[in-house]
Amino acid sequence: MDVGFVGVGAMGAAMAGHAAQAGHRVEAFDTDASVLAAAAVEGVTAADTLGDIAEGCEVVVVVVSTDDQSRGVVGALLEAKPRDGQVIVVAATNHPATMIALNDDCIAKGVGFVDAPVCFGLKGAIDGDLVSLCGGAAADVAKITPVLMAYSRSVEHMGPVGTGQLGKSCNNMMHWAACVANFETLSLAKACGIDAQAMRETLLKCPAHNTTLDRWDSTRFTWHEKDMDVVLDLSQQAGLTLPLFGAVDQLVKRLGPDQVKALLYGEEAEYLGQKIKGRSISEVVSAR
Hints:
Blueprint lengths: L1 E5 L3 H12 L3 E5 L3 H7 L4 E3 L3 H7 L2 E4 L4 H13 L7 E4 L5 H13 L3 E4 L2 E2 L1 H7 L2 E6 L2 H11 L3 E8 L3 H29 L4 H8 L7 H4 L9 H15 L4 H10 L4 H9 L2 E4 L2 E4 L3 H6 L2
Parallel strand pairs: 1-2, 1-4, 2-3, 4-5, 5-6, 8-9
Antiparallel strand pairs: 7-8, 10-11
Helix pairs in contact: 1-6, 3-4, 4-5, 8-9, 8-11, 8-12, 11-12
């Protein structure tokens, strides 16, 4: 299949590479010439323009960061001469409303559209082990599945356009809630005499195991504010009160990789202005 990738930073380049290794003819485009040159290896060809991608590819996978970037790329693809039967896939994590609007634009041009954000981040992209959550028409999802399976362990059809992003938001809710729960849990362990990293390793063998805890020391806290903004906006529009996630929204903003590193490996950590320093359990309970 002729496949285009637009946005070939670390994740996009890895995904494009897996598609090429799976036997697809892959063209890539990025506005950063150095990024594009680095991605154009092992069967991935650099396209001169976005128009080349639009005209030559049956499936175009858009791997950008923001809603505005997705709008810009999809708009530019539609302004060119999209290949007959083309399906545009937005693999970015965006708002469902953006996907619905872009789908309307694509319908007007006779182009298919699927929102297919991914789970498991950069490591998943490098390993070809992502999960793609798809919103779109069944025929469009079926058409793109061989491409998505080149870099995914699973392709899940969630429903119509927008539900791929909704599914990703549900995943994000659990991830960021787990980040807060993990931090508070390991804070208690550290404050009462158990090394936080040792407690983490033990919990990974217990029912409290979660994939966020498994990747805890590599979580980058890159998109938590954007992710939680989408969650809370959707809940308001749905007329739902989600008090736990209102708290998660505020608490996760106070966390970052430096705080996690200090908690797991440092002598002292900090949480909400509180100093967390190891004491023995006997010291803690005798202080009552």
